[in-house]
Amino acid sequence: MASGKEHDNATCFLSLPFSLCLCLLVGLANGLIAGLAFAFGGLWLSPDLDTYSKALKRWGPLKGLWWPYRKLIPHRSLFSHGPLIGTALRLTYLISWTALLLMLLQPLGFPTLLSVTKACKEQLRLNPQPFLSLLIGLEASAWLHLILDGDPLPAEWHRWRHR
Ligand SMILES: [Zn+2]
User: Fold this and answer.
1) For residues 147 and 39, what is the distance between their CA atoms, to the nearest angstrom?
2) Regarding predicted confidence, which is higher, 136 or 151?
3) 45-to-57, 91, 114, 153 alpha-carbon distances in Å
4) How far is the CA of 47 from the centre of ligand 1 (A)?
5) pLDDT tens string 93-111
6) Distance CA 20, CA 9 (A)
7) Ligand 1 centroid to 84 CA: how many Å?
8) Is residue 162 part of a domain?
């Protein structure tokens, strides 16, 4: 299992080549989005948010947002270290906090959750590539993390296999 520093170094080292490859494949803007998502995914939205990690500390005063996540999800479980499901759950978790913040800020004149949701859906319908680039970058960083951990399969898989 790699240390937090090894995860960070690999993420930083591979962010630029990953972004360049995606720029060649999907164009400059979407390649940059994927590269930034890869870096963000490795440094801030890491599977290790399920434990007191360097990624968690990077959230600074906002790291408390991840306290329920850490308490509910065991370290290296399917729900944090599972391919696809880990990223999907962390994104859903973050979007839930954002939705709650929007609802709290609405009385101050901020856009409503409904209007933001409609705008996002319309943007997705008109131009889904940036969103797909974002997802590819985030998931690729999760895969890098899982590979560096030495075992891309979550602990549940091994417990189930040895029954
Ligand atoms: Zn890990």
Assistant:
1) 16
2) 136
3) 11, 8, 26, 19
4) 6
5) 999 999 999 999 999 999 9
6) 18
7) 14
8) no
